[in-house]
Amino acid sequence: MKVLVAVKRSVDANVKVRVKSDYSGVDLSNVKMSMNPFDEIAVEEAVRLKEAGIVSEVIAVSCGVAQCQETLRTALAIGADRAVHIESSEELQPLAVAKLLKAIVDKEQPSLVILGKQAIDDDSNQTGQMLAALAGLPQATFASKVVVADGKATVSREVDGGTETLSLKLPAVVTTDLRLNEPRYVTLPNIMKAKKKPLETLRPEDLGVDVTPRLRTLKVREPSKRSAGVKVADVKTLVEKLKAEAKVL
Ligand code: AMP
């Protein structure tokens, strides 16, 4: 059984990004880039399935600029077996990525595709859902537990007010939430081993996918500053303030 994992190169989670002075986007020059944190969880889950003997091969895929290969090497160091880089210097929006991943799904025929629930740069939370729709596969988003057995994935997913459990017939698409697992640290010997693992490079044209952006960014602005809050002594004072000042009661 093969598992395909989508990994995005995105701004490191610890970086405080700045909006460019012309409001055209976020300034990414000299900014540390890393694997999207939800994708680390996705790779970890796939590798754990392999270590449990349920999966035979883990393939990591990344779409984007040449440096995505660094992200793929990290996935290989965590334990993926091989990697596919779909190289493009275009801005790749979720629909374009979903189409590229669909082409790889058609080619590789994985039993399970694991993606992050969202990329922390665009926060779109769209690619997994779009891929499932394009490929005609069942999906379970925001997974906090995945059990694979008897041609099915039983997925506990985080929903408002608790957890929902879904049973999906494989092949299926799963997107990860934070509580699914805690990704391992990559060790130096594994980083060295990862350098020798196979990494294939393709271009969107090789897959017959048009990645032209469909959405145009008009302006990117910092959120307006919030004024400082106040502490109230007790519930009575809070209710009075909500009535008299905020006028919401
Ligand atoms: P998004 O819909 O942009 O929030 O991304 C959701 C998930 O889709 C990410 O966590 C990745 O697993 C996957 N994904 C998005 N963009 C890419 C990309 N350029 N390359 C590989 N995977 C991606």
Automatic annotation (TrEMBL):
Keyword annotations for this protein, in alphabetical order, are:
Electron transport, Transport
Q: Does the keyword Ribosomal protein apply?
A: no
Task: List the protein's name.
Answer: Electron transfer flavoprotein subunit beta
Against InterPro entries, the record matches this protein to:
ET-Flavoprotein_bsu_CS, ETF_a/b_N, ETF_b, ETF_beta_N, Rossmann-like_a/b/a_fold
Q: Can you tell me which family this protein belongs to?
A: Belongs to the ETF beta-subunit/FixA family.
Among SMART domains, the record links this protein to: ETF
Q: Where is the signal peptide?
A: none
One Pfam family per UniProt: ETF
Q: Where is the Electron transfer flavoprotein alpha/beta-subunit N-terminal domain?
A: 23-211
